[in-house]
Amino acid sequence: IERLRGRLSKSRSALGQSLLGLLGAGDLDEDSWQDVEDTLLVADLGASTTTEIVQRLRAQLSARGVRTSDDARALLSEVLTEALGADSDRAVRALPHTVDGTKQPAVVLVAGVNGTGKTTTTGKLARVLVSQGRSVVLGAADTFRAAAADQLQTWSQRVGAEVVRGKEGADPASVAFDAVKRGVDAQADAVLIDTAGRLHTKTGLMDELGKVKRVVEKQAKVDEVLLVLDATTGQNGLAQARVFSEVIDVTGIVLTKLDGTAKGGIVFQVQRELGVPVKLVGLGEGPDDLAPFEAAAFVDALLD
Ligand code: GDP
Q1: Closest CA to ligand 1's atom 16
Q2: Whole-angstrom Cα distance, residue 225 to residue 152?
Q3: Ligand 1: centre distance to CA 6 (Å)
Q4: What's the CA-to-centroid distance between 8 and ligand 1, angstroms?
Q5: Which of 22, 30, 146, 287 has the smallest number of CB atoms closer than 10 Å to its CB?
């Protein structure tokens, strides 16, 4: 919590502390409610989530009253945690399977637009799994961004995972195929595939990502499709997310760069809009700066 608090310091002052200040003042007049609404909107919670949260706060406030700052904190904590869908399943599915008596790796596709932190997230996730004692194969299927494969290779050395890469400009699907084949042959626990992040046209993306998934599925089940979104891009990130979720079945969101933004409220909006749980959050550039997302801990860090 302490670390999360530090990393979320911008959102904490812009969102958590502002709301506590407003609600802790006791009886709120219309102007103050307007300020509550503005605070939520500015922190990127989006119009519909904001309306819903304000309604719940108003109803609860008149039902039970808020006398102390602890009351305000408890009320905010309850309403905000609920708005994050407290009982969503946020576990990343990265456990191997047994098929016909043979061990098969879990396959995780990591998708997202270039620059969002896709390759970094793939490396960090490998580190988490390796530190849990699992063997990991990384697939460098982002063959369009010249440096991506080198970057993933550096991660593989850093975390102790194997990497499969193709020649520059190779077909992403063929690299993905080779990575999964290696994972199956080596009886690895998980194969993480860094996919190409070109969002040139929707059909182009569909062709590329769709093909990667189809080709992978010839050998193993795709357990998880993680969509990486940059929290600092706000509405733009949401627009990207909509396109991706039309093209492929996204099963989890990774929200990166939450450390660099005061608009942590985007977590609420992304989850609500896409109907897909936020599973992981990026809280910095370092190898250990990927954390499982927990609604209650996140809200606590905003309010503490
Ligand atoms: P890709 O093009 O999507 O694969 O993006 P990269 O993985 O290369 O990341 C782009 C930049 O964002 C790099 O400088 C990363 O170090 C940085 N980055 C990735 N995740 C985070 C994060 O959670 N917080 C911060 N502050 N920077 C991040």
Answers
A1: 285
A2: 18
A3: 19
A4: 17
A5: 30
ipTM: 0.98
Q: pLDDT of 38-81, one tens digit each? A: 999 999 999 999 999 999 999 999 898 888 889 999 999 999 99
CA distance 75 to 63: 11
Residue 102, strand partner residues: 99
The rounded distance, in Å, linking the Cα atoms of 52 and 55 is 5
Spatial contact of 236 and 194, defined as CB atoms under 8 Å apart: no
| Ligand 1 nearest-atom number relative to CA 123 | 7
Positions of E strands within the chain:
97-99, 102-104, 106-111, 136-141, 162-165, 190-195, 222-230, 252-256, 278-282, 290-292
The phi and psi torsions of 43 (rounded to 5 degrees) equal -80, 10
E strands, 112-189, where? 136-141, 162-165
The alpha carbon of 163 is separated from its chain's Cα centroid by a whole number of angstroms, namely 23
Question: Would the CB of 210 count as within 6 Å of ligand 1?
Answer: no
